Records
---
Amino acid sequence: MIELIGVSKKYGRKTVLRNLSLTVEKGHITCLIGINGAGKSTLLKAIMGLTPISGGEIRIDGRPIDRNLYERVAFVPDTLAMPPSMSVAGSLRFMADYYRSWNPARASKLMDFFRLNPSDRISSLSKGNAAKLNLLLGLSLDTDYLLMDEPFSGIDLFNREQIASVFTSDLIEDRGVLLTTHEIADIEHLIDKAVLLDRGEVRRAFWCDEIRLNEGKSVIDVMREVYQA
Amino acid sequence: MKRFAIAAVFAAFIVLVIGIYYVQAAGDRSPRFRLAAVEGDPQEARSIELLGWYRNAPYSENVKVNAEGSQYYDELSLFDRLHGVWSRELTPIDRLIFQYPDFMRANRAADYQDDGLLVRVQTNARFEVGKSRVTHSLKFDLLDKKTRRTRSLRADLPENAGYNGLGILDVQRSGDGLKVAVEYDILRNDGTRGTPEIRVYDIRLDDGSVTGSQVVHYGLQPAEGQEIYLSMARLYDWTLPSDSLVLEAVMTEVRNDGEAESANHFRASVGRSDAVERRLVVYRYDTGDVRSAALPVEPPDAPFSERLYQIGGDALIVKWSAKTAVVQVYGLSDARMKYEKTLTARDMQADSILNINPLPDRLYLLLQTQDRPAVAAFDPAGGQIVFRGLVEADEGAEGTDGNALLRNLDLDSVYMRE
Amino acid sequence: MNGYLKLTLFELNRFWKIYAALIGVTLISQAGGFVYHLRNYMNSVHRQMAVRGFRNYSEYREAFRGGDSFHSFVSFAEPWFSGPVVLCAAAMMVYVLFIWYRDWLGKNTFIYRLLMLPTERLNLFWAKLTAIMAFVLGLIAFQIVLLPVHLWLFRQIIPPELGISENIFDFVRNHRLLQILIPSTFPEFLVSYGIGLTSVTVAFACVLIERSFRLKGVFGAILYAAACGTALLAPNFSDRLYPLEAFWLRLGIGVVLLAVSIALSWLLLKRKITV
C-alpha cells in the first residue's frame, strides 16, 4: 500500500498540497481527479521522490522512500523522459541495463501491440507513439505499483482506446495503480477508487462501485457536487 | 560490451600517455657541471656557490654550480621550490628566514646579528601638521637567539629640525646597547637636496632610550649649486658585526642646462650633476674617530665600473673593465691606502672579467676563459690571488661534447655556502 | 557492473561526437596550420635563394640571420596552435554546467529518468564528474601525443641549417599556455588537476543548488561559488605566510571545499532536488 499521511508541499509561498492523506491499494486502480493546478502531478512526483515535501509522510509498503523504491514503483510521467537522439530500441536497452525488474518479454509483446518501430528516434515519434512508448517503459517493469500522470493527455481517440485496453488486461492485474487525469469520461468505467482534489486538499475519496450502488451516482455526478458547490 | 571496451581503451590511453610523459620528463636532465679547484685551497671551492644561466637555445635555465655538482631551478620539486630551497643557501636574509621563520615573518629584513641577538630596525616619521615639523623614531624587533623570545623597542630620536628623510645605514652592538648609524636627508620645496647629516645614536637595549649621539663629519661642505650623496660600502653580509662604518661621500655640482622638450612634449629643466669631490669616510664605533681620504674623481664617461667594498678589515676600491681590475686597499684604522694591485684577466688565465662579488673575507672575480667559466679569489689581507677555480662538465654528461656544453654556461654571481 | 560505471559509460557515450569534433579541430588546426606556415616559409626561402643565387641553406642563413627554433616557428603559426587549445578549454568549461542542464532541457526532461534509477543518486554526480575529468585529461593526453608529431613535421620540412629542433619538455615548459595545462612535474600535475577537480565539484554543487531552489537557488549558487573562490584565495591575502605554508593551507582548504561540495551535492540530490 502507498500511504500519504498529512503531506503538504509549498512552492515558495504557494501551498500546492495541503495536509493531504490518501492510500493506494494493490490490485486496485485509483484515480486522482482535479482541475489543472490542483496538485495532482506534484503529488505523483512527491511519491516518486522527484520533488521534496514540506511536511507529512509518504510510505510504500510501510517503508519510507529510498532508492530501492524504483524497483517496486514505476512512474509514467507526463513526458517521455528519454534523450531525443536515442532510438526506441536504445531506450528499452537503457531500462534493461538498470532495472532488475525489467521484463523483456513483456516489453517485446507491448512493442508489437503498440506497433512501435525499434529503430525510430525518440525525437521523431508522434505524440501518440511517444505516449505509447512511455506507457510501455512503465508497464514493462515488474513493479507492485504503477503511477501514471495524465496518460491520455493530448492523445487522439484511437490511440486512447488502445491505451485504455491495456488497463483491462493482465498487465495491470495485481498492481496498485495511481493515475491522474482531468478527462474522467474515458476511464470512469476502468477505475476502482476516485480521489477528488481541490486546491491541494482531498475533498472526497470514494470507491466507485459503492457510490454507484449506494447513492446511484457516477463519478462525474460526485464531481459536479464537489466542484460546483 | 563494446562500449565498455572503448571506454577502457580511452582510460588506458590517458593513463599511459600522461604516465609516460612524466616518467620521461623526470629523466630529462640538463647537463651536469662542477667547480674544480685549479690553484689554492680546495676547501675554498667547497665554500662557494656560483649562480647563473645555462643557455639551452632558445631557452635559458637558472643554474647553481658548486664543488659537488650543479642544480637547476626547474629540477627542484614543487615542495623544494615553495620551501625556498633555491635561495636558502644564498643570501643572508634567506638563511635567516630559514633559521628564524617566525621572527622574519612580519618583515623579511634584518640589520644586525651575532651569536645571541638578531635585530631589525624600522624608521618611523611623524609629520606634525600644526607645528610643521617631523619627528623621527626607530622601532626595533629583537630576537634572543638562545631563548627564541622576541621583543620590541621604540627609540624616539631627539628632533632633528629641518630633516624630512631618515634612513638606517648600519646597526652595531656595543656592550648592553646598540649603535645605530642613520642618514638624515632633506628635500627642499624647490626640489633641491640639502646637506645630509650622519648621526650615530647610542640606544639602550633594555628600554630603547637614547643615551647619546654623535655627528659623523665627512669633511665636505657644499657651496651653492652643489649636492652631497652618501653611500655605504658594499658588504656581503651587512648583518655581521663590524667595528667600522665605511662610506663614500660624493659632492656633485648641479647645473641647470636650460630647458628641453621631452618625448611627451613637456618642457622641463635639464640638470647635469658632475662629481667634483670624493672622499672615503671611515667611522670607528669604539672610539668615535672619523678618518677620511680624498679619492680621485673619475670622468663620467670612464670605460670601467667602480665600486667601494668593505671586506674583512679593509675597504677596497675596485675599478674594473673586461680585461683589468685595479684594487686599492685602504686600512680601516686610518683610512690610508695600504697598496694598489692590478689584476689582469691574462694573469688569472682568463679571457675576460665578467663580474666582481664581495664575500666576507675575499673579493671574488667571475671570469670567462676561452671555453668555460672560471673564478678567482683575491685576499685583501695578503694582497694576492689565493684561489682559482674552473668549471668542468661532469663525466657522463649527455651529448658527449662536454666543452660545447660549457660554452653555453654563463655564471655571473658568487655566494657563500654555509 | 554497478550503477556508477553504467552511468559513466552513458555520459561518455553521449558526448563523444562533440568530443571527436574538438579533437579533429585541434588536429587540423595545429598540424595543418603549422605545416601551412612552414611550407610558406620554405617557399619564400627558395625564392630568395633563387634571386640571390645562394647555393645552400647555410648561405641563406648567414645573409638573413635565419635559423629559428621550433618554438619560434610555432609562435609564427599562431593562432592556429593555441586557438584550438583555448576552444577545447572553453568547450569543457561550458560542458561542466551543460552536462547537468542538458538533462533538464527540452520537453523530454531526461532528469526524471535519471533520478528514478535504482541506484544511489550521488552516482549521477560521480558519473558526470568522472566523465568531465576523463574528457579533460583525454584532451591533454591528445595534445601530448601531438607534440612529437609537430616536431617530426618540423624536421621534415625545415632543414637543420634553418631550424633548431628542441626537446618537447623544454618546449612545454616555456610555452605560455602549455606550461599551465601540462605542469613540469607529476606532483604539480596532481596539484593543478586537483584544483580543477575541486572547481568542477564546486560548479556541480552550484548547479544543484540552482536546480533545487530555482530563483533563490541562483543567488545561492553565486554565493556558494563566491565563498569557495574567496576561501581558496584567502591565503594570498596574508603576507605573513611563507609560500610553503600558504601552499599547505590552500591544499587543506581545497580538500575541505571538495568534501563540502560533495556532501552538499549528496544532500541536495537526495532531499532537495526538484523537477
---
Amino acid sequence: MDLKTPLYDIHLKYGGKPVPFAGYLLPVQYPSGITAEHMAVRTAAGIFDVSHMGEVILQGPDALMNVQMLVTNDCSAMADGQVKYSPMCNDNGGIVDDLLIYKKTADHYMLVINAANHDKDTAWMKSKIKGDLAFKDISAEIAQIAIQGPKAKEILTKLTEVESLPVKYYSFTDEVSVGGISCLVSRTGYTGEDGYELYTANENAVKLWELLMESGGVCGLIPCGLGARDTLRLEAAMPLYGHEMNDFITPFEAGIGQFVKMNKDDFIGKAALAAKVNAKLKRIGLELEDRGIARNADKVFSNGNEIGYVTSGTMCPFIKKAAAMALVDAAYAAAGDMLEIEVRGKYLKAKAVGLPFYKRSL
Amino acid sequence: MEIPKDYFFARTHEWVKYTDKGTAFVGLSDHAQETMGDVAFINLCDEGESFNAGDVIGDIESIKAVSDVYTPVGGTVLSVNDNLLDKPELINSDPYGSWLVELEDFKKNDELLDSNAYEKFLAEAE
C-alpha cells in the first residue's frame, strides 16, 4: 500500500497525477509539463514535495562517534548548522545509501535518507550503532518542501526575515518562522540550482505550500513533479541511488570518491575501500549525437567492445541535449571520445563529456 | 480533453483522418500526448513503405519514455511530416494538426472508434 504525503490533496488541486514512487504517491508532473517545470527552476523557481525523504535523529554523547562510523565523509569538524553530503557504505565498500548529515549541536545529528532505502537504512543503522545515544526515526512526522531556483531566496524573504535564512550553501537554520510556520530551512537541493529545503511538521505542510505558492507566483514559481526533479538532477550530474549507486558500486566508481575520507579513523567499509581507491569502473557523462534518448541499462560500446552501461538518461531541457550518465570501464572513455549506446536495437553515437552537463553561473 | 468529430481512433490512441482526395492522415490523440508528456524526438518510417493496420510506423520519445506508434489503417506512405523531426513539441501543442504520415491506397478499418466511442473508451479507462 503506497503512502500519501501530507501534500497529496495539494497535488490533486494543482493538477498533478500521483503515481507510486518509493512507497509514496507523488506526481510525475503538473499540467505545465516537465520541460516548463525544469525551465522554471533554472530561470525562476520551482516548488517540490519531497516529504517522502526519510529523517532519522542520532542524539546523545556518542552521536558523533556513530555518525563517523556510519558514513565515509568526515563529520568531526562540522559546525553547528552545517550540512554534509556523504555515502554510507557496507563492509565491502558498496553504497548502502547517500545521505545528508545535519549537525544541530555537538550531540544531535539529523540524517536525511532516500525514501526507497528507508527500511534498509534504518535497519542497517540500528544494527551498527553503539554506546550512549538515542536513535529516532521521525520520517513519518516530517514533511519536506523544496523551493529551488534563482528566485527562491526572494520568495522566502517575503515570508521571513532575510537574517534568519542560512547564508552558505550546505548550511541550515532551525526553527525559522516562515509565514508563522516553524521550519528547519536548509540551503541545499537536488537540482543544481540555488535554493532551500524546508522541513516542518506534517500538519504545517499544506499551509506552508500555499504560502510559498502565493508569495512565489509573481516570481514565476510553479509546482514541479518527480519528472523535473529527475531531469534537473541529471543535467546537474547528481547521482541517484538505484541508478548511479547501489550496494555493489563503490563511491569511487560512482564518482563521489571525494566524499570518502580515507584519512579519518575507522568507518564501515574503510578496509575494503582502501583496496578499491583505483576503481576499475568510472561514471562518465555522454551527450548523444544521434537522435534518441539512452535509458537506464542500455549498453555502452567503444569501437565495438562493450565497456559498460547507462545508469540514467533523459532529454535535458535547459542544455537541450539528450544526455546520459554511464558506468564504464575506467580504461576507456576519456572526455571527447566517441562511443556508441545500444538503444532499442540501434547503435546511437554519443560523445563522452565531462560532468556536470550544466553548472549554474554564480 | 479535445476529441474532434471527424477523426477516428485506435485503442492505442492514434487517430486517422480521411481526406477528400482519398488519402488518410495519421497522428496521435490529445490523450496520447498528454500521457507521454513533452515529446523530445520522433522517428518515422520512409515514404513508399506499406503497412497493415496495427503495424509500427515509428516511435515517439518523450522525456518520460519511448513508445511505438501503430498505424490505425493499412496503406502506403505518401508523405512523412518531416517538420515534426525538428519540432516534435508540435505534437504536444497541436496533436490533431500534427499528422505523422499521410497514407494512400489505405484500407478503412471498421475496428476504429469514432469520437463518441473514443470518448467513452477514455472514460472507462480512467
---
Amino acid sequence: MTTALPPADRKARPSRLWGLVAAVGFAWVVGYAVNGRLWDWVVYDLVGLDPDSRLGASIHFFVYDTTKILLLLGGIIFIVTVLRSFVTIERTRKLLGGRREGLGNVAAAGLGVVTPFCSCSAVPVFIGFVAAGVPLGVTLSFLIASPMVNEVAVILIFGLFGWKVAVVYVVFGLVVAIAAGYLLGRLNLERWVEPFVFETKLRGKTVEPSTNLPWDDRIAMAWQEVKSIIGKIWPYLVVGIGIGAIIHGWAPEDLFVDLAGAGNPLAVPIAVVLGIPLYSNAAGIVPLAGALADKGVALGTVLAFMMAVVALSLPEMILLRRVLQPKLLATFVAILGTGIIAAGYLFNAII
Amino acid sequence: MKIEVLGSGCKNCNALEAATRQVLEQLGIDEPIIKVTDYGQIAAYGVMSTPALAIDGDVKTTGRVPTIDEITGLITAAM
C-alpha cells in the first residue's frame, strides 16, 4: 500500500490519478455521444449497407449496442466500485444483526443492492449472517436481492430497454426478494438448514476490509474491477447481442407473438421454468431478452425470464446446497419462482 | 509464524496465495502457506468475503488481493 512510498510520491500520485480519471471520463462522454453517428457512418456510408436491409440493420444493431453496453458497463462499474468501497459486507451484517423480520427483510434487500457481493461468496455470507444471529428469512432476502438487482443487470436493462423498465425491474426485484425472504422466514425452516451452520462459532474480531483505504487505492480497485468484470462477461455479451441481432433481423415478426405474446396465459411460467437451468449471467441474457421484447414478447414475460435466469441459476443452487438441505432448497426455489411469476403477470397486467 | 489463505478456490484466492508466496520468498521466510478451503472454517474466522489472509490466526485482509507491498508490511509486522 502507499505507506511503503516516500512522502513525496504519496503526494504526487493522487493528483496524477485524478487527472487520468478526468481524461478517461471525458473520453467516455465523447465516445458515448458519437457512438450512434460513428456506426451510422461506418456501416451505412463506409461499408455501404442499406439501413433497411436485414444485414445492414442487424450489423448496425450489433456494433452499436455492443459499444453502448461496454461503455455503460465500464463507466458504471467504476463508479459503483468506488462507492462500494465504503460499504462492506461486515458492516451490512452489523446493520442487520438485531433486525426482526419484516423491516429486516426490507433492509436486507436494500443492502443486498449496495453491498459488494459475488455469488462465489454466497456460502460464507450465509454462514456468517446466520451464525451471527441474522434471521434466516432476512439472510435469504439479502441473498436473493444481491444477484438479482446487481449493477450489471440494471445497467444492461437501462441501456437496452430504457430507464422506465430498469426502474420497474429494480422495484419488482426488491419486492420479490423482500416477500420471498419474509415468507421463508415465517415458515420456520431453520431445521432444514445444515446443522453445522448453527454450530459455527465466530471467533476473532471482524476485519473491516477496505474502509481505511486511501483514494488512489479505491480508484485502482475500481479500475481492476472494470477490467475483471468486462473481461469475464464480454463473451456472454457478444454472443447475447449477436443472437439478439439475428433475431432482430431475421426472426419472423409473429414467431414469438404466437409462442409468448400477451395472448398466451402460460407464457410467464414457461419463461421462468426455462430460465432456471439456463446458465448465463445478466450480460448474456439481457440483450437476448431485448430482442425478444422487440419481436412482441410481452414485457412482463421478458422481465420474469431475466429474473429467473439471474436469480435462480443452477450453479448458485448447487453452492447453496452446502448450507441448505434439499427440502429447504426446494422450498426456496418454489417460493422465489412463484414470486417471479407473479411479478411477470402483474407487469403484463398493468402495461 | 502461521500463514493462512482463506478461500475456496476462486481466482482471487489463487492470486492471493501466489502473491503471499512471492513475499515469503523475498523475505526468505520458510513457512508453508496453509490453505483453508472449508466454508465452515472460513466463516468461523469471521470472514464473509474471500479471499482472506490470516497471520497467526488473525485475519488481516478480506475480500481483495492486497498489493505485494501491503502483504510485505503485514508479514514483517508479525515477525
---
Amino acid sequence: MLKKRSTLALACALALTLSACSSGSNGTTPDATNKPANKGGNQEVGATDTPENVTLRMAWWGSQPRHDYTLKVIEMYEEQNPHVTIEPEYASWDDYWKKLAPQAAASQLPDIIQMDLSYLAQYGENGVLSDMSPFLGNPIDTTNIADTVVDGGKIGDKLFGFNLGVNALGFQYDPALLQKMGMSDIPDEWTWDDYMEMAVKAKDAGIYIDTGMRAEVFLAYYLRTQGASLFSADGTQLGYDDDQLFIDHFSRVTKIVLDGAGMTPDQKAQLKGPEDDPAVKGEALGIWQWSNQFVGFQQLAQRDLAMQPMPGPNRQEGMFLKPSMYFSISENSKAKEEAAKFINFFVNDIEANKLILGDRGVPGSSVVKDALRPELTPQQVQVFDYIAWAEENSSQMDPPDPIGAAEVFTALTTVAEQMEYDKLSVEEGAKQFREEANKILAKNK
Amino acid sequence: MRKRAVKWSLYHVFVLVFSLLMLYPVIWLVMSSFKPTHLIFPTAGSLLPSPWTFENYAKGWEGIGNQTFSVFIRNSLVIVVLSTVGAVVSSALVAFGFARLKFAGKAFWFTVMMLTLMLPGEVIMIPQYILFAELGWLNSIKPLVVPSYFGHTFFIFLMIQFIRTLPVELDEAATIDGCNKFTLFYRIILPLILPAIATSAIFSFYWGWENLLGPVLYLNSPAKYPVSMALKMFLDNETVSNWGAMFAMSVVTLLPVFAIFFAFQRYIVEGISTSGLKG
Amino acid sequence: MNKTLRNHLTGYLFISPFLIGFLAFTLIPIGASAYLAFTDYSLFGKSVWIGLDNFKEMFTSDSKYIQSLKVTAIYVFGGVPLRLAFALFVAMLLNTATRAVGAYRTMLYLPSIIGGSVAVSIMWRNVFGDEGIVNLGLRALGLEGVRWFGDPLAAIWMLIFLSVWQFGSSMLIFLAGLKNIPSSYYEAASVDGANGLQKFVRITLPMLTPVIFFNTIMQTIGAFLSFVPAYIITKGTGGPLDGTLLYSLYLFRQGFEFFNMGYASAMAWVMLVIIAILTALVFLSSRFWVHYESKGGS
C-alpha cells in the first residue's frame, strides 16, 4: 500500500518537472513584455486604414541620467505616434555588450540598437545590422546634417549606424594649475616638443602633466598627422610601414612616465574611478580625452577647465570628428522602417534634443545645434564651441576599426604597459607590436 | 573555575578581534554608504563619516529609470526563492539515488554529473542561449529558475558526502521496519542530513542573489532586473558614478542574505546525533 | 517485476531530475561547444571547421595562453590549500557552544556574502593600495610595502588573499561536518585520557575526511574556473603585465571581446580535461584516506 502511494507521488513529481520543461514555446504568459516582440518584430493587427500597431525593442547603454532622459524622449515619441510602443532595454556598458553578442548569435537583437565605433565592423560585416542607406532622406531627414557626419557610420557602401553626435580629441586642463607652472596659456599651434617642455615645468611645479594617453587612440592620432593610419584600408595589416613613427610617439609617452612627470601603470591601476583621477584632484594638469567627457570631468572637478586642441605638427590631418555612438537597426528586425522613423525623430526633433542636450555627442544637425545653444550650461557650450572649431579644422575620419581590432588594441596595451614598466625598449616594442598585430589582422584576408 | 573563565574571555577577545579585522572591508563599505558621494574616496582612510548622511539611501531607493529599488529586490527574491526550493528538493532526491541505491550505470552518470561542473560556463552560454531562445524563454526568469529544479551538482555532491557518513545499518533497520526507498529517503535520511540541506539552501540563496551573468543574458526589460544588475547601473564609466547610492543599496541588498544565513545557520549547528542507531 | 529490476528503476527514478535536466538543457550545448572547439567561429558568422588548429595555436604560438596556465596554477595550488586550512581553523574555532558563537559565525561568513560585487573591488583596491592598511601594517612591522598592483608576482597573491578572505563557504561546510561528529566519540576519548591534539588527529580529522574530500574537489574546480574576482579587481585586463590573467578571464576575453568563440571553446575543453584528470586523481586517492562510517556504501 505504502509502496504504491509513494511511487505515485514520485511519478507525479516527475510529471510536474517534465511539464515545466515543455511549456512556453509561445511565451503564453500574459506578461506584456513577453509577447512575440521578443522575436524582434511587430505584432500585426490586420490591415486597416489606421497604421498597424508596432512594438519596437530599443537597447542602449549608459547610466541613470541617460536612462531617465531617454525614457522621456520615448514617451514623447509614443505620444506623437500612438500606434508605436517602444520597449526599452538598457544596461551598463559591460553588461550591454555581454547581452548583445548572444542576441546576435540567436538573431534576437532589438530593433534599435545603440552601437559603438569599435564594434561597428564586427556586427555590421557579419550581417546582423541592416543597411540603412535606403532610409537616408526618407524617413531619416539629413538636410541639416553634413555628409561627413552621416558617412561616419558607413563601412564601404553600406550604412550600418546612424551617427548620433560627434566627439573630438583634445587636452582638457585646469588653467589655474597652468599658472602654477608659470605659464599663462597654451599656444594654439603647440607641438609635441612644446608638450615635452611643459612636462618638465609640471614636474617642477609638483604636479603630473597628464594621466597618460590611451595607447590606441593617440597612436592613431599621431600616425594620421604623419600621413599614415593605424589600420590599412582593407584591415588586413597595420597601416604604417615605418616603425620609427611608433618609436617617436611612445618614446615621448614612456619618457613622461619614466621621468616621473606622469603616473606609473600600477598607480593607474589603483585608481578607483574617474573621481580618483589626479586631474580631478588637482594633482595633474589635465587629461587627454574626447570632448564629450569634458562635462563629466568638470562636474567632478568643480572648477573652471579649458579645452585645448591637439598638438601639431600637421594637426589638421590628425584631427577628426568621431561618431560618439550610433543607432543601428538589426537585420532581424521586422519593423525597420518604423525604427528608422524613430531615429529620425531622435536626431532631428528639437524638443527631444532639448532633453538629450548633447549627452550622446554634439548633434549633427545644424538646426538642432542652434536651437540647443540657449539651453546649454557654460560647460556644454564649451564643448559645442570646440566641436564647431573642430569641424573647420579636421580631415576625414579613418574607416571603422576592422574585425580583430579589439585583439590588436589588447596587444598594444600590453606592449605599452611593458614599456612603461621599463621592461621593454621602445624599439623592441615597435617590432613586437607589429608582429602580433599583423598576425591578428592577417585573419581578415 | 577562574582558569576556565580566563580561557573563555581570551577566546572571546581573540575571536572578536579576528572577526573585526576580517570584517574591516565590509565595515568600510557600510561606513562609506553614510558619507556623501564626493567624500567617499578623499576620506577613504578614516572610517567614521563626518558629516553623516542618509541621502545615499534615499537616492538609491529611488532606483533607476522608472523603477524604485523595491522592484529590483522583489525580482531577486522571486528568482532566488523559486530556484532555491527547486534546487534543494531535486538535489536531495538525486543525492539519495547516487548515495544509497544500486543501479546499472550509476558510476557512469555520476561521472557525467561531475564533468558538467568542470566545463567553464562561458562556452556553453551561447548554445544554451540559442536553446532557450528556441523555447521562447528569453526575457523571462524561466532560464534562471527552471534548470534548478533538475538538481545542482554542487549540492548533490555535498549531500552525497553527508549521506555516506550515515551507517548503512540505519537503512537496514528501517527497511526491516517496513520502509520502502521513498519513505527511507523522506523519513530517515533527509532529517539526518539537515546540515547539508541548510548549507545548500544558504548557498543557493546567496549564489542566486548575486548571479549577474544569467540575468544579464536573459532579462531585457529593466522592470525585471534583479539587484545584481541594478547595482551596476549606478556606475558609469563615462561620467560621474553614484558610488554613495551604490554602496548604500549594496548594504541594503546584503541584509536578506544576512538574514537567511542567520536563520538557517542553526540547523547546521544543531548537529544531529548519529546515535540514531539506538533510537 | 523482479526485485533487481525494480531497484534499478527506483534508482533511476531518484536521479531522474538530474537526467532530464542534463538531457534537456545541458547535453546539446555541451555538444555544440565541443564541436565549436574545432572551428573558427566569431559568434555571428558561420563556423568554419579548422580541425586541431585552435589547439595547436594555443600551445605553440600563444604566449598569453601559457601565461594564463601558469597564473592559474599558482592561484589553484597556492590558494586552495591556504583557503581550506584557514576555513578549517576558523570552523574549529567556532565549533563551541557559547551563545555568542552564532553572531561570530555570521560575522565571519559575511565577507563571502559580499561576493564579487564592484564594491568588493573598490574595497580590495583600498586595502592593498600603496597606502592601504596591508602596506601600513607591513611597514609597521619594519618590512617594505609591496607593490601589489605593480608587481605581477605580487598581484596574483592579492587575488589569492581575496579568495581566502571569502572562505565562508568552505567554513560552513566544515562546520556542518564538525557538527556531524557525535560528541559521544569525544567523551569516550576523554575517558580514555586523550588530550586535545590526540582527539583532533584521531577523531576529528578522520571523521571530517568526507567533507575535506568534498571541499578539496569543489574548491579546486572552483579555483580553476575562477573569473569574477580577477575581472573586477583588474578591470578585466589581467594586469599588471598579465600577472593576474587567470585562465577563465583569458577565455572570456577571447570569446566575448575578440569574438574568437571557436578558440575559446577549445580553451574550455582543455581546461575540462585538466580538471577532470586532477579530480580523478583525488577520487582515486580517496580510497586511502577518506573514511566513511557507512561501510559498504556506494
